[in-house]
Amino acid sequence: MTDKVERKSLVDQVYNLILRKIQRRELVPGDRLNIEELAKAFDVSRTPVRETINRLIQEGFVEQKHNVGPSIIKLDEEQERDLIEANAYLFDIVIDTYRQMDSLDGLIADLEEIVDEQSRAYEAQDDNGFHEASVGFHKVMIDYCTNQTIRECTKKTQNQINMCTFAYLAVIENRKLSIQAHTAIKNALKIRDIDKAQELMKEHNRFSEIGYMTEKK
User: Which of 14, 16, 4 is nearest to 47 (CA)?
Assistant: First the structure.
């Protein structure tokens, strides 16, 4: 690692650096996180690294095992299927909370911007950019959820799923399907057809699960 951080907001900066490495598969499930090594690599003290790891544990990216230390969370196939299923149920509720909102204009504007980013990354064959935009689409939908408890639960399950999707989204056809699905969901929300948006998200999650499990084999 050669990344360095500026001498301000150290925890947020270290968090973003480690998170980016996770999402780009530079750190993969099972990899151990050595606090001293990370502190040296980022040219910071151990304190912000330790705080960052605690935050990543809370968000579901990292697990702490007794006598082993922190490592990127690693799930078996059954756990992954359970996670995907739980996330699909949670997203159905996330979208349902939009019915309580007077306006969806802010949500739509943010989703349109992200779909545009996805399309540009697709044309540029930018693997990391595409994955980050795809992650961003789901993050925005969660952020607009009006129920804080549902929002936090969904954020955690989606974070764990994001670690599994890089290889799946590396396939060109899957990228096309992702853009199409996100565009359709955004368009349904644009006309406040919440039922349709829920149906499209369920279909998106189902195809993503099938595609992801296929890529693993």
Answer: 14
pLDDT of residue 8: 58
First-last CA distance in the chain:
30
Helices 105-123, 127-143: crossing angle, 10 deg rounding: 170
pLDDT tens digits, 54-63: 999 988 889 9
Q: Report pLDDT digits (tens) over 101-145.
A: 999 999 999 999 999 999 999 999 998 888 889 989 999 999 999
Residue 2 has pLDDT above 80, yes or no: no
Residues 36, 11: Cα–Cα separation, whole Å: 15
pTM (whole model) above 0.90: no
DSSP-H helix ranges across 97-126? 105-123
- All residues at 6 or more sequence positions from 55 whose CB lies less than 8 Å from its CB, including other chains: 11, 15
Alpha-carbon gap, residue 97 to 67, rounded angstroms:
42
Task: Give CA separation, 178 vs 11, 78, 165, 175, 182, in Å.
Answer: 32, 24, 11, 5, 6
Contacts of 187 (CB under 8 A, 6+ apart): none
Euclidean distance between CA atoms 186 and 181, whole angstroms? 9
Q: Hey, what are 11's tokens?
A: 């925890």
